Amino acid sequence: MNRTQRMFLLSVMLVAAIAASLLLRSNGHSDDGTSFRPPSAVERSEAVGNLGSLAESLQIAFDPRDQSFAPIPKPGLSDWLANQQELGQTFQQYVRSHPNRPNARRQTIYLQPIGDIDSQDGPSLDQLVLYAESFFSLPVKLLPAVADDRLPFTERLNAGNRQILSTDILRWLESRVPDDAFCLLAVTMVDLYPDDQWNFVFGQASLTNRVGVYSFVRYRPDATHQEKRGGSQSLMLRRSCKVLSHETGHMFGLKHCVYFRCLMNGSNHLDEADAQPNHLCPVCLRKLQWACKFDVADRYSTLKRFAETAQWEDEALWLQRRCASIDPAR
User: Fold this and answer.
1) What whole-number distance in Å separates Cα of residue 286 and Cα of residue 42?
2) Given pLDDT bands bounded at 50, 70 and 90, which one contains residue 234?
3) Which of 141, 136, 185 is nearest to 292 (CA)?
4) Which end of the chain lies in a sparser environment, N or C, as judged by fewer CB atoms within 10 Å?
5) Under the phi-then-psi rule, with left for phi > 0, alpha for psi from -120 to 50, and beta for the rest, what region is 159?
6) Which pTM value belongs to this model?
7) Out of 247, 272, 308, 315, which one is annotated catalytic?
8) Cα torsion for 281, 301, 254, 234, to the nearest 10°?
9) How far is 303 from 133, CA to CA, in rounded Å?
10) Mean pLDDT score of the chain, rounded to an integer?
11) Span 284-311, mean pLDDT?
12) Is Metal-binding included in the keywords of this UniProt record (predicted)?
């Protein structure tokens, strides 16, 4: 891997799990949160772009004035935007970036389990497939799991935790991308690290090669000192669906959102990630709809059914309101 490729991979890492001190050393930003100013209503509207030429249902769906979407607040001391300089990405900037988009030949999202996820209190793979299909309105296929200890991956022990080198997994995936794949994403319950200088990473991806790998192990309630009790599996599923849809969103070229509280917000710690919604804001929703060409009301309706099954009552209610707003007949 040459230097350019390496820097590109690092640019799309999930660095949310890295210690705040490392983040500060790497970018030199103040940790008081004052370097980020939440965008104004005018700036949020400009980020969505001109909606005048769109169908009425899309104008409603992308309306930045809708109270269903909360503007992004000023970050706390340890939050992502207090420690990372991000300028955001408007809809027009997204279009001009010529992002990866599904086409007639490449439109399937493939999930490749590494290791036995079910036996390690991981999320239900079948439910992850259903959620990804609902979220992206694309076909999602689950590949047979492969044993993590039988693959040529570099490993290490870090504070007693077994970790796999994420760049090894990416290289392995690159040679296995199916012809009809939009992207190939590995999921695992084994901890990851990107190189010896890093403590750990939730995941890593390469947009040019359309591959990524994500670990769910640090999303387990017992791994975050939360008691294992009724609802813990639902929490695990919710967290896993969030990271899967957020990071797959990056595969479509969506950058971190700085306009609204949104699934595509960056996160610097688990509390911040838990507080973020499962849904996309008007800016990011317009980007994904432009890329995938789905019917927004149908997508919301499908996601609502999933949320009801998963017992995400707050998200199901929010989705029901959005369906009714866009298509009152639903």
Assistant:
1) 17
2) confident
3) 136
4) N
5) left
6) 0.85
7) 247
8) 90
9) 9
10) 87
11) 97
12) yes
